[in-house]
Amino acid sequence: MHPIIDLFAASPMKPMQTHMQKVQEGVLMLPAFFEAVFAQNWDEMLKLQMAIRDIENEADDLKKALRLNLPSGLFMPVSRIDLLRLLTAQDKIVNKAKDIAGLVTGRKMSFPIEMRDDLIAYLARSIDAAKQADVAIRQLDELLETGFKGKEAAIVQKMITKLDQIENDVDMLQIEIRRELFQLEDNLPPVDVMFFYKVIDWIGELADQSQRVGARLEQLLAR
Fold it and tell me: What is the CATH number of domain 12-222?
């Protein structure tokens, strides 16, 4: 039997948390990946890109197993479809990490050195959103025990509010880094500029997808 089934014996929420941990594993490799990019260490960049891809595949396997084995008749205060929507939101975070690493590696992108510090800070804040989503998902067991109500629900709601604040920070940083790139455009190949903007947008989507996890969790609290 798939090991995911064993997790259901402990808690129907454990597989959701296990999947989110795998998502985090992939996302947290991005800072080292971009350090390799700025160092133009192509071998290390490729190694990390392949590792992120492998982790995303593992997350996909967990997602598929969970979808197949999550019973439709679970006696819980939330519906199966709501949990599956939450799972999809989680999965899109690591999908985006894979997309970012794949695009940068595929084009052997070399970002302007002037952007290094701001891009690294922007990436770090976007990853903060993914971390905060993980913190909230780690409370699923406690939420289940309290019927998604009471003190525990209030704690998780504060976590979601903090996640929204982080995502807003990411939006502000994105505006700044896009402005910085705009000022450098004239001295850069136009095709490169187009893909720089795409990577910037995708880094922001890490935070957007993380916020959607919070929104899905918030829906569970509201039902």
Answer: 1.20.58.220
